[in-house]
């Protein structure tokens, strides 16, 4: 993983390389607004995120917590902010590549960048925008014997869609709001739903806890207090989970689908190997352009450092705007016009604004 010139490595994936003008790494609020600002400049962008959904840290850590310092919005939750940003970029039709991390970044002979992901996807892009917050937020892995041998559809981390649970014996493992919500959803379609946590206390909204209790009382959800110690499989197919209760006794539990919600943690991952200038694990950028030490690569949000930098969402929105204008000048060879969404017919066309 270097910044030296490289020819496209098509062996990374059987998929053809995605050709684009801009690639945004990170689909949190900063990344979403970066894609919006690029769209206003007429620059098509693609989004990548390690999580299986957009929102990043804002969704995972502040999903239901109030935010009071977004301009024009007196108060909103993290999830509400993400929903608003998602609605805002809808006219741009930004392609998303979720549930995968960027693992390689190489300079190509023609001045573009080749980016490879953990899903085997390759991108050829003229510009890269790193909006990775404090790193890629990745699900905490279940670390028990034989778990690595499970087939991909037997063990899922933080899945957003739960159709695969229909008719199956499902174990939801975790105690946060996502785990409780998943168990409630699975209870209506799964053959059997078990929710397991190390203690009989769950961190969720009161309405969810009330619903969980109703389903427990009716027998639709079985709650087990303990921890998984081993998974048992045959040819990659999950058969049984062994778990330990609070007294140290182990028990077998037939399971066909294991949904794990152990939280997420930030990891800088391969970013530190890309040869970009860093200071205390943060990317050094020019505050006027948000350019990093490599031509065509920009960075915004909590991952960056410059004199006076403040780690606030509204500061990242400003940085996204400055980076988009700088990238437009880099790509087009001239400074872009400063246009206003209130009056510009071109911007109205991009946004799908009707004048009828």
From TrEMBL:
Keywords carried by this UniProt record: FAD, Flavoprotein, NADP, Oxidoreductase
Family annotation (Pfam families): Pyr_redox_2 (PF07992)
Protein family according to the UniProt entry: Belongs to the ferredoxin--NADP reductase type 2 family.
PANTHER family attached to this UniProt entry: THIOREDOXIN REDUCTASE 1-RELATED-RELATED
Keyword check for Cell division: no
Enzyme class: oxidoreductase
HAMAP family xref list: FENR2
GO molecular function: ferredoxin-NADP+ reductase activity; flavin adenine dinucleotide binding; NADP binding
Assembly and oligomerization: Homodimer.
Organism (species): Comamonas testosteroni
Chain residues that bind FAD: 49, 57, 62, 102, 137, 302, 343
Keyword Kinase carried by entry: no
Domain FAD/NAD(P)-binding residue range list: 21-307
Cofactor entry: FAD
EC number of this enzyme: 1.18.1.2
Cofactor note: Binds 1 FAD per subunit.
Catalytic activity: 2 reduced [2Fe-2S]-[ferredoxin] + NADP(+) + H(+) = 2 oxidized [2Fe-2S]-[ferredoxin] + NADPH
Protein name: Ferredoxin--NADP reductase
């Amino acid at each position: 993983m270097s910044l030296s010139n490289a020819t496209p490595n098509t062996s990374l994936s059987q998929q053809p390389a995605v050709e684009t003008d801009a690639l945004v790494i990170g689909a949190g609020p900063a990344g979403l607004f970066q894609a919006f600002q690029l769209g206003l400049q007429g620059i098509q962008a693609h989004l990548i995120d390690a999580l299986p959904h957009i929102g990043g840290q804002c969704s995972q850590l502040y999903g239901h917590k109030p935010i009071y310092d977004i301009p024009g919005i007196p108060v909103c939750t993290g999830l509400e902010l993400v929903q608003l940003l998602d609605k805002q970029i809808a006219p741009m039709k930004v392609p998303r590549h979720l549930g995968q991390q960027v693992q390689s970044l190489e300079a190509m002979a023609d001045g573009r960048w080749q980016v490879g992901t953990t899903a085997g996807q390759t991108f050829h892009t003229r510009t890269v925008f790193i909006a990775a917050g404090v790193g890629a937020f990745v699900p905490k892995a279940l670390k028990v014997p034989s778990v690595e041998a499970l087939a991909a559809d037997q063990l899922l981390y933080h899945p957003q869609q739960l159709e695969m649970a229909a008719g199956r014996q499902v174990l939801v493992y975790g105690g946060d709001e996502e785990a409780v919500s998943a168990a409630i959803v699975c209870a209506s379609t799964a053959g059997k739903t078990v929710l397991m946590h190390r203690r009989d206390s769950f961190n969720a909204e009161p309405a969810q806890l009330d619903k969980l209790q109703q389903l427990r009382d009716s027998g639709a959800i079985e709650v087990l207090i303990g921890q998984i110690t081993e998974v048992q499989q045959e040819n990659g197919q999950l058969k049984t989970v062994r778990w330990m209760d609070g007294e140290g006794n182990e028990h077998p539990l037939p399971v066909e689908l294991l949904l794990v919600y152990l939280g997420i943690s930030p990891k800088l991952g391969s970013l530190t190997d890309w040869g970009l200038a860093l200071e205390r694990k943060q990317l050094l950028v020019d505050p006027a352009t948000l350019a990093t030490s490599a031509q065509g690569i920009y960075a915004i949000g909590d991952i960056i450092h410059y004199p006076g930098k403040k780690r606030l969402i509204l500061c990242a929105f400003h940085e996204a705007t400055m980076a988009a204008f700088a990238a437009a000048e880099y790509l087009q060879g001239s400074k872009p016009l400063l246009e206003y969404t209130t009056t510009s017919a071109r911007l109205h066309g991009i946004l799908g604004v009707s004048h009828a």
